[in-house]
Amino acid sequence: MRVKTILVSQPAPKAKQSPYFDLMSKQKVKIDFRSFIHVEGETSRSVRNQKIDFLEYTAVIFTSRNAVDHYFRLADEMRVNIPDDMKYFCLSEAVAFYLQKYVVYRKRKIYVGVRTFDELMPIIKKHKNEKFLLPSSDKVKETMIDKMDSLNVEWKRAILFRTVISDLSDLENVFYDVLVFFSPSGIQSLFHNFPEFKQNNTRIAVFGNSTVRAAEEAGLKIDIAAPSEETPSMTMALEKYIKTVNK
Q1: What is the CATH number of the domain that holds 217?
Q2: How far is the C-alpha of 166 from the C-alpha of 186, rounded, in Å?
Q3: CB within 8 A of 143, min separation 6: which ones?
Q4: Are 171 and 35 in contact (CB under 8 A)?
Q5: What are 25-43's pLDDT values in tens digits?
Q6: How buried is residue 222: exposed, middle or buried, by Cβ count under 10 Å (0-12/13-18/19+)?
Q7: How many CB atoms lie under 10 A from the CB of residue 81?
Q8: Which residue has the higher pLDDT, 103 or 205?
């Protein structure tokens, strides 16, 4: 069956040069964007209940932009002045660059990984005398916790924001040829909003092993999966599939 419409379970790209827009133009398909989940920040009371004192730590590990935003938001709400000698360990260059929103980059001690947590681990291990704080959401991979424990450094996780299911009730009678998911939470949101969802002729696209497992456990048939050696991005995987079925 031909693909004419796609729903991506993420916010619309802000960049004008997004590959999704190129895909729409080249393959003549309609792509809509809608967040199936969203983030809500924790309160300062919640942080205190977790017995978290930002000033007890000499280093912060940032794995996402959300972690950066909510760390500095809560520091401001609790009137905590983050010291200039705080060390920041960032998962990627994108996260490190985003940190400039809150600190003068060139005057701070910032250590940057390449892309994955595994690549950041050796850098953290080199600073084993630091006390690390890991700001995170309520949902974090258990493997990350295990990896932090394996480093034998002093650290604590701080839940500063939560992943919440979005209300999708307005999509009840709207149908797409392809639904695109990037996390298990997206799959959970689908069935929370539509408990009687039947896949029928809808194609399912998933990104990442954990999303694959969540889709399979939910009884969904996966038609498009990324990343792979041939299609490292979701847009590449979608384009390959569309070219095949829209001949």
Answers
A1: 3.40.50.10090
A2: 9
A3: none
A4: no
A5: 999 999 999 999 999 999 9
A6: middle
A7: 9
A8: 205
CA distance 221 to 203: 8
Stated pTM of the model: 0.79
CA distances from 137 to 39, 125, 158, 161, 163 (A): 8, 23, 8, 5, 7
Which pLDDT belongs to residue 116? 86
Q: Cis omega before residue 13 (within 30°)?
A: no
Q: Which two tokens stand for residue 110?
A: 């910032």
- Number of domains, the chain: 2
How far apart are the C-alpha atoms of 148 and 127, rounded to whole Å?
13
Q: Letter for the amino acid at 8?
A: V
Cα–Cα distance list, 224 to 117, 231, 239 (Å): 26, 10, 10
Distance, in Å, from the CA atom of 75 to the CA atom of 69, rounded to the nearest integer, reads 10
Q: Give yes or no: residues 127 and 95 share one domain.
A: yes
Q: Does residue 52 sit in the same domain as residue 156? A: yes
Q: With CA atoms as reference, report the closest residue to 21 among 245, 242, 235.
A: 235
Contact 115, 92 (CB under 8 A): yes
Measure the CA–CA gap between 1 and 169, rounded to whole angstroms: 27
Instruction: Report the pLDDT averaged over residues 35-63.
Output: 96
